[in-house]
Amino acid sequence: MKVSDILRVKGNTLYTITPEEPLARALDAMSEKDIGSLVVMDHGDLVGMLTFREVIQQVVKNKGSVGTSTVRSAMDDAPLTCTMETELDEVRRMMLERHARYMPVMDKKMLMGVISFYDVAKAVVDAQNFENKMLKAYIRDWPEDDVPDSKF
Prior knowledge:
three-stranded mixed sheet; 6 helices
């Protein structure tokens, strides 16, 4: 399974912000949209990722307030990225190594979407459920002639 498979199911709604925006505005957007991250774009280029993790670190740094902080002061300016062709197992490994909960999906310099650890976990569970159903159907439809004699 590839990242493109996840985005096809998830859809392609993107939420972005610029690095000079006030951090408070970013928090408002994240709360209003019920999302855990914003992709930080500057003149069409990916320059960072803002998640609740970075926001919390900034609030602690400012002794309990976002104050007049900008997105740039809090964002991760070297976010982990993947492509549409990246295999799901590789994404899972990358996210686990970096403790990343969100990953922008890029096609060269174009932002294609964002996948979350939740999206990855859901894709794995859905694939396993499908495989289980197929195996159960296969076992149920096993030809009677091929069933070995039981000694019990």
